[in-house]
Amino acid sequence: EKILMLSYEMKDVRSIDLVKKMGFSKPSISVAVKNLEKAGKITRDDNGYITLTETGRQIAERIYARHILLTKLLVKLGIDEDEAVQEACRIEHDISQNTYEKLKKLADDYHLLDEDGDKVKESE
């Protein structure tokens, strides 16, 4: 998800960008990047630039859609935006697809997110 978010902000994403954005150590990020590469979720070129594969992008977009929905719902509940972002990061990976879809349906049915002009991206 962070690779996707960084790719929206900058043209090229490197491991050091993930270190700065996520606050983890260089060795931790290096291990994570190698694991993602072995799993076929990313590729790295000779200069160390990271690109999401199609599979990696689909997974990241699903997680990011969860993040957006959860953050907005938590803010609607009156939780401070910074706290909502942090809470959404923790929740987004743990809820089932079924729970996510029910929350999304609730948000859509009750137009909870419409005032922002935002519709939450459909999950795949």
Outline the structure in words:
By secondary structure, the protein is mostly helical. The chain folds into 2 domains: 2-52, Arc Repressor Mutant, subunit A (Orthogonal Bundle), CATH 1.10.10; 64-116, Diphtheria Toxin Repressor, domain 2 (Orthogonal Bundle). The chain has 6 helices and 2 strands. Strands 1-2 form a two-stranded antiparallel sheet. A hairpin with a 5-residue loop joins strand 1 (42-44) and strand 2 (50-52). The longest helix has 23 residues, at 54-76.
Break the fold down into its secondary structure elements and pairings.
Blueprint: H1 2-9, H2 15-22, H3 26-38, E1 42-44, E2 50-52, H4 54-76, H5 81-91, H6 97-109
Antiparallel strand pairs: 1-2
Helix pairs in contact: 1-4, 2-3, 4-5, 4-6
Helix content: 55-70%
- Tally of DSSP helical segments: 6
Known CATH architecture of the largest domain: Orthogonal Bundle
Low-confidence region ranges:
117-124
The coarse overall form would be: elongated
Order of helix and strand elements from N to C terminus? HHHEEHHH
The CATH topology label of the largest domain is Diphtheria Toxin Repressor, domain 2
Sheet of most strands: 2 strands, antiparallel
Described by its quaternary structure, the protein is: single chain
Class computed from helices, strands and strand pairing: mainly alpha
Distance between the termini: 15 Å
**How many strands in all?**
2
CATH class of the largest domain: Mainly Alpha
Radius of gyration: 16 Å
Total domain modules: 2
Spatially, the strands of the biggest sheet line up as 1-2
How much of the sequence lies in strands comes to: under 5%
Quick check: average pLDDT? 90
